[in-house]
Write a structure and sequence with these properties.
2 helices; 12 strands; twelve-stranded antiparallel β-sheet; globular; Lipovitellin-phosvitin complex, beta-sheet shell regions
Amino acid sequence: MGAIGFFTTTAAVGAQPVLLQLRPRIGDTLRVKLEQEVEMTGMPPGCGAQTTSRTRSTPASADCASVRTMNTGMEVFSRAIVRKSMRDATDMLAITDSVRTLSGKRGAGNRAVRQPSSRGPVEIRISSDGGVELGAGPASDEMRTLFGQMPPTLSRKAVAVGERWVHEMRVPLPGEPGAIGRVRTTFQLDSLGRNGEVAYISMRGELSHDHSDGSDSETRGSLVGSMQFDRRLAWITETHATIDVWSQVKSPPAPKPMQVHTRVKQSLRVDGQ
């Protein structure tokens, strides 16, 4: 194929709508590595400014000496074995092989501790658009972090390069029993690579407080990230996301609630066999 023919074929692939759905083959084993870093910064009222996901919260003045930051990290190594394929979902067996935890900033002299998991396999059902249901089995906290809160991420219809789709979901807010937040995320198919085998997707979302619970909290947040979808494997093979949440935490006897900024960085890599 000549250069003109190659570019014509590539452009045609990019112009045609493609269906991006999770449909791994029965017997496939997906090896999953999750990396997560969490930074929580607590500030007295007036000692910080809300920032975007691309910047950091910083004290407004030198008087804010009581600002505190806590860093934690985690790596989860697991496998997902495909057991049954249905029209709109796939049944899998998820196994956590080991977990590595870290307290403090990565690279600051703190050693990560990797331990084998003592929990058994967990049954999960993943819909073709990415939503997950946990089934039988004693799911560990790490497994719930990895699979238990995965929202739908893919469009149920074919999409063309440049096209967008939106997913909304309700989530519990940390530190506020009974409080519910609403996450609205916009996804976009940015491009296709490797002759159309890999789809590159960007995502941007907002977290707002659903005040139907009667709470007057001002919790809000943002999400920025990207994904790679392998059309040959029929699976999301790479995800990167940064999540920023700003909230208020009451801590008596302080007269006013403390401002808390939580930043979560997650990356997920999947290798198929």
